[in-house]
Amino acid sequence: MGRRVLFAAVVLCSALVACGAGHYVQRGADLYGQGRYVEADEVFERSQGRVSRAGVSERAAYATYRGATYVALGDLHHAQHWLAIATELERSHPGSLRKEERDFLDGAWRAFANRLPATPPPTGTAIASSSQAPSPTVEAIPPAVPAPTLPQ
Fold first, then answer.
1. For 96-120, how does the pLDDT look when each residue is reduced to its tens digit (9 = 90+)?
2. Position 11 in a domain
3. CA 44 to CA 17: how far, in whole Å?
4. Count of structural domains within the chain
């Protein structure tokens, strides 16, 4: 699966260059494609202020890569936030993501879902101490955002 994600990242990087995406999106995408997730996160963090002035396509690409970067770093809370933004931008402005970008977003959602902790089956016993309390789980996809379709 790692090779498919890397291939998708390279394809998306090429698509972003062809679309003329902002330098900060391209730089973060390049770092992501190289597996340099911490550095990609730093680029995205420093350039977040520019996103509000960017066009819809650039904002959607930024959110897609920012979310995928958080998935790679294991920060599922922030990953869900940014992937939901990218999904909502594509939903409300169809075509804001190119096919390659949409495929990459779908792959990021799948990677996100694969990183979620397994929910233990319910038991009939009470929890004896707070140290045994189950940790909260992150909702896979917010109710307001439609679930991405998986390829058959």
1. 999 999 999 999 999 999 999 887 7
2. yes
3. 17
4. 1
- Quick check: 58 and 21 in contact, CB under 8 A? yes
State the CB neighbour count (10 A cutoff) for residue 102: 21
Boundaries of domain holding 8: 2-114
Mean local confidence (pLDDT), 80-88: 97
**HEC secondary structure over 94-152:** CCCCCHHHHHHHHHHHHHHHHHCCCCCCCCCCCCCCHHHCCCCCCCCCCCCCCCCCCCC
- Locate 15 and state its tokens: 């698509």
Q: Is residue 125 part of a domain?
A: no
d(CA 14, CA 33): 11
CATH number of the CATH domain containing 42: 1.25.40
Are 115 and 13 spatial neighbours (Cβ–Cβ below 8 Å)? no
Q: Per the domain annotation, does 149 fall within a domain?
A: no
Judge if pTM exceeds 0.85: no
> Whole-number mean pLDDT of the chain?
77
**Residue positions counted in the chain:** 152
